[in-house]
């Protein structure tokens, strides 16, 4: 089977982090994954050849094909980028990886799994919206994400002066943000380490 030369656009919706539809058709999550497997498989999405760490410590090589999972993960991540603040997004990524490890190690019925899952679920409260992307020759290319909970503001992102952003505020922020490095450089110069 050959991969098409034409790209294909796909639109998905999510509600509180749960996928709800593909290309305007509402489906159960299991059917969404089947549909994404079909679409992704056609375009060569989701082939992964990795060396991984087994629970017992040895390395093993695995070749996986998961087009639906790859697309679902990417689409969900696009929406999270839009609605979660940076600090929450970073910790959610860490906790998501931790949850994966817990499940991989067979520790489903543990207080740790319950606690990590509760954190991850709490971050999904506003992960609602629509994600559009293009599938092309093994790639998933962003084509637009919208959400009623978007934290993106074009007027702020362009750094134009307005009610919420004043360019003069940056001076103090830059001085404070760089202060630890300035103190370190002064100490290094004082001890002669800076010249080495």
General description of the model:
The protein is an alpha+beta fold and about 200 residues long. Helices cover about 45% and strands about 25% of the residues. The strands form two sheets. Strands 3-2-1-6-7 form a five-stranded antiparallel sheet, with helices on one face. Strands 4-5 form a two-stranded antiparallel ribbon. Helix 1 crosses helix 2 and helix 3 runs antiparallel to helix 4. The model has no long low-confidence stretch (mean pLDDT about 90).
Give a quick set of tags describing it.
196 residues; five-stranded antiparallel beta sheet; two-stranded antiparallel ribbon; 6 helices; alpha+beta
Q: What is this structure's SSE topology?
A:
Layout: E1 8-15, E2 18-22, E3 25-26, H1 29-42, E4 47-53, E5 59-65, H2 67-83, H3 86-104, H4 111-123, E6 129-136, E7 139-146, H5 154-157, H6 167-191
Antiparallel strand pairs: 1-2, 1-6, 2-3, 4-5, 6-7
- Number of DSSP helices? 6
pLDDT averaged residue by residue: 90
* Low-pLDDT regions: none
Number of strands: 7
């Amino acid at each position: 089977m050959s991969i098409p030369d034409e790209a294909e656009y796909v639109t998905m919706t999510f509600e509180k982090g749960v996928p709800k539809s593909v290309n305007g058709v509402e489906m159960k999550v299991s059917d969404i994954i089947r549909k994404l497997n079909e679409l992704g498989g056609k375009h060569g999405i989701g082939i992964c050849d990795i060396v991984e760490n087994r629970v017992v410590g040895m390395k093993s090589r695995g070749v996986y094909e998961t087009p639906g999972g790859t697309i679902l993960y990417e689409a969900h991540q696009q929406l999270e980028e839009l609605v979660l603040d940076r600090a929450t997004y970073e910790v959610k990524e860490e906790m998501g990886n931790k949850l994966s490890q817990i499940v991989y190690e067979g520790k489903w019925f543990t207080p740790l799994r319950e606690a990590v899952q509760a954190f991850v679920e709490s971050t999904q409260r506003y992960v609602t919206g629509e994600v559009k992307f293009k599938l092309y020759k093994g790639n998933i290319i962003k084509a637009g994400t919208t959400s009623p909970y978007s934290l993106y503001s074009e007027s702020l992102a362009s750094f134009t002066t307005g009610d919420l952003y004043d360019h003069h505020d940056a001076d103090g922020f830059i001085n404070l943000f760089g202060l630890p490095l300035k103190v370190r450089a002064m100490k290094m110069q004082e001890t002669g380490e800076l010249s080495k």
